[in-house]
Amino acid sequence: MSETTATLMVDLIISLDGYASAEGWPGWWGLEGPEYLAWLDEEGKKDFTTLMGATTYRVMSSMSEEASGDGSGFSEEEGASLTGLAAMPKIIFSSTLKEPLVWPNSELISGDAVEAVRELKRTRSGTFSTLGSLSLCRSLLAAGLVDRYRLVVFPVITGKTGRERIYDGYPDVALDMVDSRTFDGRLQLLEYVPRVIDAPLTRG
């Protein structure tokens, strides 16, 4: 019998200069459009298990709850995307959170996240996809556990206001592109197979 192996995808949104967010800017830098939001909705219907750390869990579970109420301030599309997260299976890595977790369909793992994901990939099937959780993504990539690295690049440079630099602390990584797409004439999806490398690539 062949060994079951799940696929792990790191999934990030990013400014052109490598930030995950920026002070004073709205979510998605205010540049989300109908094509992108429709794609997010379709992705949310796929049989993914979402991985995240404690900070992302606290932020996203609060936003999901807020979006489900009246007068939340979110657009209809944003609200649907956020409330839909409640139905998705989620694994939360934290040594500080305690069970039971209030967000539906959330499983808590308190041990070492890298080793836990290594075991999850070995024993489960399907696709694991990260949500936020930059340090978790970095650790999983450095450990060689990431099968796909997917970015949606937003056309802004936030050199003054940018927060959460994505690539700080990364190893060197070679990226083989497997997919690309443009949303709303301005957002660029880029999907790669990543390979952690010990030395710069040379022509050959």
UniProtKB/TrEMBL annotation:
One of its GO terms (molecular function) is 5-amino-6-(5-phosphoribosylamino)uracil reductase activity. Residues 7-188 form the Bacterial bifunctional deaminase-reductase C-terminal domain. It comes from the Bacteria. Pfam families: RibD_C. One of its GO terms (biological process) is riboflavin biosynthetic process. This is Riboflavin biosynthesis protein RibD.
